[in-house]
Structures
1.
Amino acid sequence: RLNNLMTLLDLHKIIDRADVTSLSGGEKQRVALARALLPQPQVLFLDEPFSALDATIKRQLQVKLREINRKLGVTILHVTHDQEEAFMLGEKIAVMIQGKLCQVGSRDDIYYRPKTLAVARFLRNQNILDMTVEDIGTDGTLHLKNGIKLIASGTQGARPGQRFATGIRSEEVIVIRPNKPIGPDLQDNLFQATVTDVLAFGGTHTLCVKLHGSEVSVDVELPNCAMRDLGYVIGDDLQICLRKRSLWTIPLN
């Protein structure tokens, strides 16, 4: 078993080192993982094991930890403040805020369907609107208004006049390309908007846009390849869609 772990964790090339202080941070973590796995635990608890490592080594060990989980079948409880790490590693994710367990679920449940405003904000949802139910459609959809009107998927027990926090992740906002046909799932929640700012974040850009005829602003995240094609600058007008199936709602009263 020791030999298998050494192979899995790439430890053979450092096994003969006499001076353990010469090990790099990543090598020390791989040795620590091997020692923890050698007794064949049913559950492995890791408390921010990669927090002190540089980005490249950190990513390598994250990938290695996924491989360990698949090959050895050990349950891993992994504590981290790094949200990207949590979503990369976790099959099930628990969100704790100020010592309180706020939501437990799959990656998609946590990321796209937050249950509380605290979780939504913790996960950096920028587009959160305070809306009121104007009507409930025959198909159960919520017709919401507050400066703008939105149609969102229904929530059991919703009633006209009820307030909802309604949000959509910035990468889920659809930019409608000019002179292109609009698909059937993009017919609702279409808005004309003006670009008020453009923010660059390495591999993505965020367009800050203001919806025409309202005070509502929305962040739109685009990959760099799309941004290069579209070429939007401050002052440009565009059409966006807040796609119904991408909206989440949280009752406020």
2.
Amino acid sequence: MEAVRAISESGEAHKTVEVAFTVYEERGMHGAKHFDMSKIESTQAIVLDSGGPIGTIITTAPGQQSLKITIEGKPAHAGLEPEAGINALTVAADAISQMQLSRIDDETTANIGVVQGGQATNIVMPELKIEAEARSLNDEKLAKQVAHMISTFESAA
């Protein structure tokens, strides 16, 4: 904002300056998803959203895709007949143990950040919800990682 104020007050000729603010980046880019890019005329941008020391210049940003996975098992009484159930956690554990996660290569990462499930200790877990993401500087690598994650869950089911 200080830069915009200084440009405005300088009286010097300058290119058009457009400023946009978005919210909720860390939980899925909710602000940016609803941003109307047709209102922006600029072909270049400076984005002020990064870690590191002040003055650090970031020249690329990864693409990101979120995944929400629901695994449906089958409830059963864990003490009386656990074999009658299908434990959603066991299915998830099988998939996750075969999945490439964390740093995939120098451009790609993948993470499972949220796991929710279960109702009680005496019930075979009937449902498990997972929230995951993949990020990459390369769109093809991103698509490949997402496909890998999805197919791993599908194979385990």
